[in-house]
Design brief:
mainly alpha, 7 helices, two-stranded antiparallel ribbon, Arc Repressor Mutant, subunit A
């Protein structure tokens, strides 16, 4: 069996989602390989980063799920190994015990610091290969897509191309 050439295996697709998923898998593999020495996957690092960014006001589970653009059950699935390994702690809110805030533990902060130095290597590698200005523009575009409330729901009417 012959391997497809890079021209055919990465042929132009008209599907935005397919192109985004292919790029996401490629980058996730690169970031995961770079983060491997600290034992975290890129998704886990992203979660720890979001919690650390909010260290003055730890997020609730709902706030963290919204920030990660995940549903709560997916977030819970991703938090379990972090909690099991003592990197995060879920603490009930003082005002309402039903709300759980997600905190980095001391061990979690140490793991995050180690992972952050590895993450910088991955960032440097990507920006060196792709181009820093292009990477900045790509990140801005992708974050805009992630934050766009119009893309958060399925359209009630089919969208017809204007072409």
């Amino acid at each position: 069996m012959t391997q497809p050439s890079s021209q055919t295996s990465y042929a132009v697709s008209r599907c935005n989602c397919t192109a985004l998923r292919k790029a996401s898998r490629r980058l996730s593999l690169m970031y995961d390989a770079t983060l491997a020495p600290c034992g975290l996957k890129s998704t886990q690092f992203s979660i720890l980063s979001e919690i650390e960014r909010r260290h003055d006001k730890p997020p609730t589970m709902s706030e963290l799920a919204d920030a990660m653009v995940m549903d709560r059950s997916t977030l819970g699935h991703n938090l379990r190994p972090l909690e099991r390994d003592g990197l995060i702690a879920l603490k009930a809110a003082d005002a309402d015990r039903r709300w759980k805030h997600v905190h980095l533990t001391k061990k979690g902060l140490e793991k995050y610091s180690h992972a952050h130095s590895l993450w910088r290597e991955a960032q440097h590698h990507f920006e060196g290969s792709f181009g820093r200005d292009k990477a900045d523009h790509l990140r801005e575009t992708l974050l805009g897509i992630a934050a766009d409330p119009a893309l958060a729901s399925i359209p009630s009417q089919p969208i017809v191309s204007q072409r």
